[in-house]
Amino acid sequence: MSQYFTEDASVEAVNARMGQNINPRLAQVMASLVKHLHAFAKDVHLSQAEWDIAIEFLTKTGQICSGERQEFILLSDVLGFSMLVDAINNRRPAGATENTVFGPFHVDNAPELPMGSNISLDGKGESCRFEGMVIDLHGNPIAGARVDVWSDNADGFYDVQQPDIQPKWNNRGVFITGADGRYAFQGIKPVSYPIPDDGPVGQMLNHLGRHPYRPAHMHYLVTAKGFEKLVTHTFVGDDTYLSSDAVFGVKKTLIAPFEHVNDGQTIWRSPFDFVLTPV
Amino acid sequence: MSQYFTEDASVEAVNARMGQNINPRLAQVMASLVKHLHAFAKDVHLSQAEWDIAIEFLTKTGQICSGERQEFILLSDVLGFSMLVDAINNRRPAGATENTVFGPFHVDNAPELPMGSNISLDGKGESCRFEGMVIDLHGNPIAGARVDVWSDNADGFYDVQQPDIQPKWNNRGVFITGADGRYAFQGIKPVSYPIPDDGPVGQMLNHLGRHPYRPAHMHYLVTAKGFEKLVTHTFVGDDTYLSSDAVFGVKKTLIAPFEHVNDGQTIWRSPFDFVLTPV
Predict the structure, then answer these.
(1) Domain edges within chain B
(2) Whole-model pTM?
(3) Which of A271, B93, B147, B161 has its CA 20 to 30 A from that of A157?
(4) pLDDT tens-digit map of B116-148
(5) Which CATH class for the A81-275 domain?
(6) Closest to B234 measured CA to CA, from B270, B279, B184
(7) A63 and B60: CB-CB below 8 Å?
(8) CA-to-CA dists, residue B258 to A142, A190, B183, B193, B245, angstroms
């Protein structure tokens, strides 16, 4: 191999440059990144003008980031990359509940509430009872499981997006299962909403002929001693955007029933069991 | 194919989402990008923690960019991507002078000077006479070729990096060839210098066991009616960093002789002919 750059051996020229005593995992990851990035440029015969546009896009994507906004995670989300990394790292046996993306709206230390409590504090939306069991792969109830839940309100916003409008902890709560493994809480039937689309990623979606909406979903973070952490959503089965989630978060097994009840206490009921995998 | 995301069909899930009436070239480029990015994640089994580090790196890279600094171009440079895009778009017949990266230090409208003029205005460094011909693939001289040249000074800085220290247009000039196709100017033997390494890209190079230096070089932008634009450097053949240019700009054919002269007028002489390709 020539010690100088050539188009044919561009990958080798770059990767041969790494030092001998560096972190071996870093070396592996960077060598693969260079290989795939160069293959991309060669595949499409990327022009200088196109690369200039990409540089400008990446720069704007970094510059719009702030304490409240992470446009690079959004970019990763809309390219299916976040879901892919999640999938690679959370392969589970058949029957176990699948993971999906965590999203940016979880808040630590939400209040722990008595089983059955109402988490909708703003009185908006169609009430829904969420209930089911946390079980192991054999169907045995898991006691002491921590079920941390969060959703948007009926206007499509999380409480943290509207701190001056929504009550603190609106549509959030933590429930701990008893010996029967059961959980239950009262919330609202969630609604679909757009991801932030007023920045570079929104512009990109527009150029790609894609909409920015996520189908309605309830977030769950379920943890229990001796089991893998489960980060997931349940999706409302009749949502318009179910097959076109802007961040590709939907998995078939996560579509939950939303049954019309109207028993004077609630309008909807959504039963769903969470099946955890042992560590 | 499932309409929902799966690890195996992650690329298809994302690329099937593009609209029907979008720019076909954009569709082609994005589909390839998604394919190669997903292949990278799968190849190395990228962990969530690693991806979090990458998101933070990309964000910092965007945020350090300013009117005077383009850290994403620097990132592209050190990954050999800039050289690759340049190579893909400037394939030339054997015998033609090769391209290399343009770099960030060119300034438009440098003064046009009489042939043989001295461009070193600060009196620093070892004087060097640069001379040769601009010719076509058959060796015929090209009249009216515009030879735009620029280099660092003896301290390793371009004039635009030190506007308060260096004279304006120090080590820059434009020369127009006559009927004989010859060019000649007096400058200094350039010196090696580091790319900006106090940001995220510098930190990355450090983790990769790489230094930030570029081998000494003289920049050329050679244009003539009826010929392809040539963007190139000539490199000083005995430079320490010749085989480890931080941005992979060196090509074997661009290493120029630097001959010791000491004739009372100059210390060095560097002859080099530029061979242009017809458009």
Answers:
(1) 1-46, 81-275
(2) 0.93
(3) A271
(4) 999 999 999 999 999 999 999 999 999 999 999
(5) mainly beta
(6) B270
(7) no
(8) 78, 73, 16, 18, 19
